[in-house]
Amino acid sequence: MVELLLGSLAAQTLRAAVRLRVVEIIGAKERHAAEVAAEAGTQPQATARLLRALAGLGILQERAPESYAVTSAGALLDPARPDSLAALVGMFAEPAMLRAWEHLDEGVRTGETTFASVFGRDFFPYLKEHPELSALFNTAMSQSTSLTAAQLPHAYDFGRFTTVADIGGGDGTLLSPVLREHPALSGILCDTEEGLAQAPLTLRRHGVEDRCSLVVGDFFRSVPEGADLYLLKSILHDWNDDQAVTVLGHCRAVLPPGGRVLIVEHLLPAAVAPESAALYLTDLNMLLNVGGRERTREEFAELCDRAGLTLTSVTGLGEGNAFCLIEAAAEG
Question: Does the annotation mark 182 as catalytic?
Answer without folding.
Answer: no
